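hiii, so i know i said id send this last week but things got crazy w the move. better late than never?? heres the sequnce for the chain we talked about at the cafe, plus the structure i predicted for it. fair warning i was half asleep when i ran it
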Amino acid sequence: MRPRDLLTRPLYRAYENQLLRGLDRSLLPQHIGVIHDGHRRFTRATGLPDYAAGYQRGMDKFLEFVGWCGELEVPAVTCWLLSKENLSRPESELVPYFDVLAGLFDRLPDSPGAKGVCIKAIGSLNLLPDDLRAAVERMVERSNGGERRVTIAVAYGGRQEIVDACRDLIVRLASEGIPAEEIAGHVEADALAAHLYTTDLPDPDLVIRTSGESRLSGFLLWQAAYAEYAFTDVYWPAFRRVDFLRALRDFTRRHRRFGQ
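okay and structure toks below
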């Protein structure tokens, strides 16, 4: 342990305990969305040998984060680990990340924080390489199927989700014998929402994005209409429990009006 850590770690631990004591747990979010951003910038800033090392730090942090949510009994978490747009990146960047993701998917069901958790994956999974898609399927099959939910967004795009929901709704209406000229009249908000990837989850109350970017980039576009947002400058692999607790503290202090 570095000399600086000998001083700062006890201070952060004391601050964490202070934040925990001050949290009104009855006001905690029921569904948290997270955009895990900043792996490559973290790698460059810390001098790690390659992007794979930065990605691995980020996935180790992800397992920690799932545990933090379990300790606070957060019912649902949706984590965006790979966007559909990310798939257009150079193969030299994607292949190391795919390898790290596959490792994460194999580790997650057996991790301490995933006990009693139902794990689901959403996104255009058909676009993933065969071995990564197989890792996703193994992860889902091995999850404990408990009441808490961890949803992993991979090859996910918010616009694509809405397009898919529209298509599914229209197909259903047509299969029910609704005439083509009447279908538009049946395309309503509740009907469309029932075909979203997360239809079995409540809308997110809080969305956290790391790395200093203050935008959603299409994450849960429909569902996050009235979510609160927490944007932090910390790169995801360096995200600390104290950063998480601060976001929760700030959330509990906000007055949510839901557009009223």
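btw Residues 28-156+203-247 form a domain with the Undecaprenyl pyrophosphate synthetase fold (CATH 3.40.1180.10). thought thatd interest u
miss u guys!!
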